[in-house]
């Protein structure tokens, strides 16, 4: 089944700014508790339109990000139909291949999939994310001396392969999952946002 999805990614985690995982270094503190959310502005998976939906995960990363063994909780936009949910899971579990499959291989265990309301309102690195009762984050982009948003390019690790990433910080990041043993409430830590096009 072929697919093509395009939209915006947001990640926020317990690493300091900038997140060392993007250049292949170990996470600050040795482990990382991170949230990833992909909002699909436009997309088709086979014959299923998934435009306007968001897929997200909360993950415990036990060491260097490239070594895998992530433990993750997946979240599907509660506005998705059963067919749309199946399509999103097929893409983001790597079942359909493409760029996202490389990242999916880093996940060692998925503790569950939940349907929840997801609020994704982020543009050029600034905005907010809400994932049910599990995650709440506010974000602001870092800027250069001329006010231009700061971006990352050509990194060894990326959740949006081939695209530049806006880097910044989260004035507020709260995440809680009993299944993952995560209970985070932080200010001023890493946030990254960018656009993606995934197809296979």
Q: What do these coordinates show?
A:
Helix content is 8%, strand content 52%. It has two helices and 13 strands, in the order βββββααββββββββ. It has helices spanning 82-92, 99-104; strands spanning 3-13, 32-45, 48-49, 54-61, 70-77, 107-116, 118-123, 126-131, 135-141, 151-152, 165-177, 182-186, 189-199. Strand 7 and strand 8 (126-131) form a beta hairpin. It is globular, with a radius of gyration of 15 Å. The mean pLDDT is 91.
Sheet bearing the most strands, described?
13 strands, mixed
Q: Provide the gyration radius in Å.
A: 15 Å
Oligomeric nature of the chains: single chain
Counting DSSP E segments of at least 2 residues, the number of strands comes to 13
Number of helical regions: 2
Morphology call: globular
Describe, in short, the structure shown.
With 200 residues, the protein is mostly beta strands.
Primary descriptors:
200 residues
Give the helix/strand layout:
Layout: E1 3-13, E2 32-45, E3 48-49, E4 54-61, E5 70-77, H1 82-92, H2 99-104, E6 107-116, E7 118-123, E8 126-131, E9 135-141, E10 151-152, E11 165-177, E12 182-186, E13 189-199
Parallel strand pairs: 5-6
Antiparallel strand pairs: 1-2, 1-13, 2-3, 2-4, 4-5, 7-8, 8-9, 9-11, 10-11, 11-12, 11-13
């Amino acid at each position: 089944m072929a697919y093509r999805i395009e939209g915006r990614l947001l990640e926020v985690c317990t690493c300091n700014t900038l997140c060392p995982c993007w250049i292949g270094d170990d996470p600050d503190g040795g482990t990382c508790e991170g949230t990833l959310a992909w909002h699909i502005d436009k997309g088709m998976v086979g014959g299923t339109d998934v435009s306007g939906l968001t897929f997200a995960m909360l993950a415990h990363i036990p060491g260097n990000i490239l070594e895998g063994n992530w433990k993750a909780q997946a979240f599907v936009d509660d506005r998705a139909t059963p067919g749309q949910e199946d399509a999103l899971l097929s893409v983001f579990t790597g079942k359909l291949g493409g760029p996202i499959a490389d990242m999916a291989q880093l996940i060692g265990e998925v503790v569950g999939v939940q349907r929840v309301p997801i609020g994704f309102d982020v543009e050029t690195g600034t905005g907010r994310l809400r994932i049910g009762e599990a995650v709440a984050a506010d974000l602001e982009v870092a800027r250069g001396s001329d006010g231009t948003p700061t971006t990352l390019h050509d990194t060894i690790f990326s959740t949006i392969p081939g695209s530049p990433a806006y880097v910044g910080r989260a004035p507020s990041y709260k995440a809680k999952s009993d299944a993952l043993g995560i209970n985070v409430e932080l200010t001023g830590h890493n946030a990254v946002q960018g656009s993606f096009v995934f197809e296979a």
